[in-house]
Amino acid sequence: MQKYFIPFLLALILISCGQEQSSDSAENIEEEDTTTVPPPEMKYGFILDSFIVKQGKIQEGWTLSHMLAPHGIAQVLINEIAHVAQDSSVNWKYVVPGKRFLVLASKNDSNDVRHIIYVKNKIEYVQIDFKRDDFSIQVKRKPVKTEEVWMSGEIVKNSNLTLSINQQIKDITITGEIAESIAGIFAWSIDFFKLHPGDEYKVLYERKLVDNEIVGIGEVKAIWFKHQGDPYYTFQYFADSTKKDKGYFDEKAKEMKRPFLMSPVKFSRISSGFNLKRFHPVQKRVKPHLGTDYAAPTGTPILSTADGYVERAGYGKGNGNYVKVKHNETYSTQYLHMSKIADGMRPGVKVKQGQVIGYVGSTGLATGPHVCYRFWMNGKQVNHRALKFPSSIPMKKDMIPEYLEYIKPIKSKLDSMEITRYIVQNPES
């Protein structure tokens, strides 16, 4: 019996010791901290927790001194900053009321300013870095993320393209960018002053985001627009094998651009059309109106509807301030009642299609701000809205197979998309 008892006792002692060691080890192990530590706040490339941060807003009448002097920046240094800031690479001449700025000072001394950030817009900011009695200044940009977005809509009664898009976007600035892009791309084929209820559109475009906020749009990739029952397609692609310049082409690879823009102003309205028997509102008699009046706010830019050379630029008793452009031996255009002729407009000056040549006004015989657009063909004034201009030129032949293959899935998506429909209330109801 004894010979079995001693090994048994030793086994108990070993087990007991092992249990005590395990117990001691368990007591010495610290519980794992599962608390999530929030990441430090990062803004404009700086960890803000590393600084004393002060924020401010530019007030009416402020100069650079008002922004910098209260934070211990000497006037001599401020003058140097103002001088350097006007350099072409920075191009920062003044502070704008309402803009925000940040002052980052040393954690140990609130008077030891290390950096100042002036926010120009949602993307750009001016950064001033201080080191002893010296500084550096540069314009920086926040990272911009781009994503593709599909959108569709329709034109209904009491609506237009801008109102229709804004039903979805809810941001008039972004809405305006998209509407202007669509109107610009189709400016040579769709008359946006004649959109009808029932017209529909589908768009693939890029939107830009900064800090997950939409700040603008990028390229418009593709559009389908049904106007008065006729479908129009356009896709963005390269014009030749160098793949440097992009253009817009239809489903048959024909370029969208045409010789003349449909209108010399954007997003206005026709207040008076071409009419051989119009009653003149100022002279109070029946007098032919050999142009089309586009009503728009004073100062709205007036665009040359095609490439050409300035033939005349000046003032006439009836015409007010005006510019006449000769495009070729067949066509000329004239733009009347300007509040101001654009700088540099004089006979012989070359102008490009879409270039600003003046601004809407009511000079001469005019009852309100508008531009009277006149169109000559072979020396005779005609109604430009009734003309059919030549077809556009197709892209390089060797690019067409590649282009047609590229647009296949995009066109299929455009064809299959459902139209997003909204009800636009009559503002008069």
Give structural notes.
This protein is 19% helix and 35% strand. It has helices spanning 2-28, 64-68, 75-85, 161-169, 172-185, 400-416, and strands at 42-43, 46-47, 51-57, 100-106, 109-119, 124-131, 134-141, 145-154, 200-210, 213-227, 230-238, 246-249, 269-272, 292-295, 301-303, 308-316, 320-326, 331-341, 350-351, 356-360, 370-377, 380-382. The strands form four sheets. Strands 13, 14, 15, 16, 17, 18, 19, 20, 21 and 22 form a ten-stranded antiparallel β-sheet that branches. It has a five-stranded antiparallel β-sheet with strand order 3-4-5-6-7, with helices on one face. α4 (161-169) crosses α5. The N and C termini lie far apart (111 Å). The model is unreliable at 1-29 (pLDDT under 50).
Query: What does the main sheet amount to?
Result: 10 strands, antiparallel
Quaternary state reads single chain
User: How many β strands by DSSP?
Assistant: 22
* Element pattern in H and E: HEEEHHEEEEEHHEEEEEEEEEEEEEEH
- How would the global form be characterised? globular
Beta-strand level of the residues, as a percent range?
25-35%
What is the share of helical residues?
Answer: 10-25%
SS-based class: alpha+beta
DSSP summary: helix tally: 6
Query: Average pLDDT value?
Result: 85
Which runs of at least 5 residues are low in confidence (pLDDT < 50)? Answer: 1-29
User: How many angstroms does the end-to-end distance come to?
Assistant: 111 Å
Rg from alpha-carbon coordinates:
34 Å
